[in-house]
Specification:
Layout lengths: L1 H20 L5 H22 L3 E6 L3 E3 L4 E8 L8 E4 L7 E2 L6 E8 L5 E5 L3 E5 L6 E5 L4 E6 L6 E2 L19 E9 L11 H5 L5 E7 L6 E5 L6 H20 L3 E4 L7 E3 L6 H9 L11 H5 L3 E6 L17 E7 L9 E3 L2 E7 L9
Parallel strand pairs: 2-10, 14-15, 14-17, 17-18
Antiparallel strand pairs: 1-3, 3-6, 4-5, 4-8, 7-10, 8-9, 11-19, 12-13, 15-16, 18-20, 19-20
Helix pairs in contact: 1-2, 4-5
Length: 361
């Protein structure tokens, strides 16, 4: 409103000067400036009174580089817009408001290049009269939040054969014994439900069913977010882990061990658990320590160890199991090594072949 005050003040000075010096030519511009200031201030104030601006997002979750539909609607108050602009952080530049319009709409598609939670400042209306004498800002209350999910990339084989392995059945609880794994001599105190009565009837003696953890034989994806040299390496590792977990789960199921977790999360082919895991991957930050592998890695036949640090070695404990396939996935490439596959800017290297049971991704 400073422009209106200055313009009206100048008009008042001209009127007073004209009256004091009996200079009638000063009266006309003085009165005109005062009327202009009053009219501009009144129009802007009336348009701002009850005005509102709203922003509608097509979704509060979007994948990296995918379009997000955004619609911004501005409505004038008591009088139509005198002019001005619609301001929003998602717009490349303020959208002009046409004078004498009561409603203005802007439809855009925006893309986010990197994962993470985004806080979007509220849009605002900057109302101005056609001569730019008076201006006033009407802001929307409340910011919006958008979760940008890591992009899922295809897993591309760089050598012969399929890059991925599956087998067994993923388990929501590590260590739950539910699958038959052969017979063994009966142990005192074992439940009667485990006794193999058919073997006893054949004269083979008292034997019991040996059970193994559900999920043994299914692949495990491990994300190690410790020590990335730069943010791009961490993002690449997260995208690679997301891509591997998504491909393996669709191929029959897998488990994924995220930073800070002591127990792996099961991902079945039905995809029900995927949205929650995908959202957690979007928020993974750099860490100082590697993952706690625990029983989850010991029970898996194939472990895909995704490290955010270039050239990071796989934990030695993973290489102790001769029946376990261990694949190290790192950003970029390792000098002197031939990668088995590439995914999301990372390369996968087979460190231990284990039992081969390849399944296409």
């Amino acid at each position: 409103m400073r422009g209106a005050v200055a313009t009206g003040g100048l008009g008042l000075v001209l009127v007073l000067l004209g009256v004091a010096t009996d200079a009638e030519p000063l009266l006309v511009p003085g009165v005109s400036l005062m009327a202009l200031a009053a009219g501009a201030a009144g129009w802007v104030a009336a348009a701002a009174r009850g005005a509102r601006v709203e922003r509608e997002l097509g979704s509060h979750r979007v994948m990296e580089e995918e379009p997000l539909s955004v619609r911004i609607t501005a409505r004038a108050g008591l009088l139509p817009f005198p002019g001005g602009a619609l301001v929003d952080s998602l717009l490349p530049e303020p959208a002009p408001l046409r004078a004498s319009r009561a409603v203005a709409r802007v439809q855009i598609n925006v893309r986010f290049a990197r994962r993470g939670a985004r806080s979007l400042p509220a849009p605002a209306l900057e109302l101005r009269d056609p001569l730019g004498v008076v201006s006033r800002t009407v802001a929307h209350v409340g910011d919006a939040r958008v979760l940008v999910l890591p992009r899922v990339h295809p897993v591309t084989a760089t050598g012969d054969g399929s890059p991925l392995q599956t087998g067994g059945r993923a388990a929501p609880i590590a260590g739950a014994e539910v699958e038959l794994d052969g017979l063994r001599p009966y142990r005192e105190g074992a439940p009667a439900s485990r006794i193999h009565w058919a073997a006893l009837a054949r004269g083979a003696g008292l034997l019991e069913r040996r059970m193994r953890p559900e999920g043994e034989g299914r692949p495990l994806v491990v994300l190690d977010a410790a020590g990335p040299a730069e943010a791009d390496d961490l993002d690449a590792a997260v995208r690679a882990a997301a891509s591997l977990a998504h491909a393996l789960s669709r191929a029959g199921g897998c488990s994924i061990l995220l930073p800070g977790d002591r127990r792996a999360t099961a991902l079945e082919a039905d995809g029900l658990a995927w949205p929650a895991v995908h959202a957690r991957l979007a928020l993974v930050g750099p860490g100082r320590m590697g993952p706690a592998l625990g029983a989850a890695a010991a029970g898996a036949r194939a472990v895909y160890y995704v490290a955010a640090r270039r050239g990071a070695p796989a934990p030695r404990r993973l290489l102790r199991h001769t029946q376990q396939r261990v694949v190290l996935v790192v950003p970029g490439r390792l000098a002197g090594r031939r990668a088995a596959f590439a995914v999301a800017g990372c390369s996968g290297y087979v460190l231990a072949s284990g039992v081969r049971a390849a399944v296409g991704a």
